[in-house]
Amino acid sequence: MGQLLSSKRGTSSQPPKGYRMDLKLQTINGDVHQVSIESSNSLLELYEAVARALDVNPWTLRLTAGTTFFDVATDGETTLEALGIKEETDLIALRCKVCFLENPGESRYNANYVCTVLHVRQEGWNRMEVEFSVRGDGSLGRLQKPKDSQLRFIDDTGERRFVLPESVNLEVDQDVKSGPSHKKGIMTFGGVPTDGGVSFVYGAGGYAPLAMNLSLGRE
Question: With CB atoms 3.0 to 4.6 Å apart as the test, which of 31, 39, 52, 148 could cross-link to 18 if both were Cys?
Answer without folding.
Answer: 39
